[in-house]
Design brief:
mainly alpha, two-stranded antiparallel ribbon, 2 domains, binds zinc ion
């Protein structure tokens, strides 16, 4: 198995572009599916170029996460406050939105993690059936022709296998593909006739649909405060006004998984910006997650915060691999940055 050639990678990108240009979009499912494939390639794939099998329930879990946020009523402030769940379909409301809204409403849950395990499993199963009947076999139809460059278009079943080289490309171009899918998704929702009046020209639609780095992270402060003994994770100084920092920055991978958070002072948080932290910080982050594994997991569960140590490690491995490949820099301290090199590989060995 070897990674795809440069030409094969370009062909892949051209196909993604064609899919978005020539595909027929009657709902936002295809954008969600493309994003789910890219995210799952990061979380479950590797850089060997190998094929990657994915169950439709794994894809459905991603759908539930994306649409959970989007199924909240959109509130428009103005002379008259109005709110409504945004439409995601040219015809009747998208079924996934209804399934997710029902689960949220009936059980009054703030996140999918607050659902009882059996109820959550049932929701994911229902959404998986919708994924199988709606976007899965239609995603690769472009200009009336099936171009099965991502996976074989079987037309049935509960799983797909990403072809050789596909997971590699989805990982390599993750930010680009996610950006394209989100941009197209926002335009689609904004242009739906049923939404136009409510939305007007509001600029915050993207933040509403996909969240922002400043989502509610305050629940993490007390959990981490004690573990870090009240000190900044990076400079070890006393934390007077702790800020929750995404260890792997949100701009690189916008998912809020518990183990990815550390508490930092405002200075360090501001200086690190969207950079990855240097290897000594990485070592400390791994040690913290290992040493406090039980406490952290217990606390995340108690506060219904999404977490997966394996997932967080996989995302970190991918993010550091990307920066190494790009010969990029990492943040050391204050205004100091250095080239990443390959040393992180020993620390983050699979
Ligand atoms: Zn600091």
């Amino acid at each position: 198995m070897s990674p795809p050639s440069a030409e094969a990678q370009l062909r892949f990108l051209a196909n993604i572009q064609r899919l978005l240009d020539e595909g027929i979009f009657t709902a936002t499912y295809k954008f969600a599916l493309l994003m789910a494939l890219a995210d799952l390639a990061v979380e479950k794939g590797d850089d060997s170029g190998a094929p990657l099998p994915l169950a439709t329930e794994e894809i459905a879990e991603k759908f539930v996460a994306y649409y959970w946020r989007q199924g909240q009523p959109y509130v428009r402030l103005g002379s008259e406050v109005r709110s409504r769940v945004l439409r995601q379909n040219t015809g009747r409301q998208a079924k996934v939105i209804s399934l997710v809204s029902d689960a949220r409403g009936i059980y009054d849950a703030g996140s999918p993690r607050e659902l009882a395990p059996d109820r959550r499993a049932a929701l994911i199963r229902d959404v998986a059936r919708t994924v199988e009947t709606m976007p899965l076999w239609k995603l690769q139809v472009m200009g009336g022709e099936v171009v099965p460059f991502l996976y074989e278009n079987l037309g049935r079943g509960h799983a797909i296998v990403l072809r050789e080289g596909v997971a590699f490309c989805l990982r390599r171009f993750h930010a680009l593909i996610r950006g394209l899918a989100q941009g197209a998704w926002v335009r689609f929702v904004r242009n739906l006739r049923g939404n136009r009046e409510l939305l007007g020209e509001t600029a915050d639609l993207s933040a509403f649909l996909f969240g922002t780095e400043r989502a509610v992270l305050s629940a993490h402060v007390p959990i981490l405060q004690e573990i870090q003994s009240g000190l900044c994770f990076y400079c070890r100084k006393d934390l007077r006004a702790p800020e929750v920092d995404h260890f792997v920055p949100w701009s690189r991978y916008p998912v809020d998984l518990g183990h990815n958070f550390v508490l930092a002072c405002r200075t360090c948080n501001g200086q690190k910006r969207d950079f990855l932290a240097a290897v000594p910080h990485l070592e400390r982050w791994l040690r913290r997650n290992e040493d406090h594994r039980h406490t952290l997991e217990e606390q995340f569960e108690q506060h219904a915060l999404a977490h997966s140590l394996g997932g967080s490690l996989q995302i970190a491995r991918w993010a550091y691999g990307q920066v190494e490949q790009q010969r990029g820099s990492v943040w050391v301290a204050a205004e100091r940055f250095e080239a990443l090199g390959a040393a992180w590989r020993k620390v983050l060995a699979a």
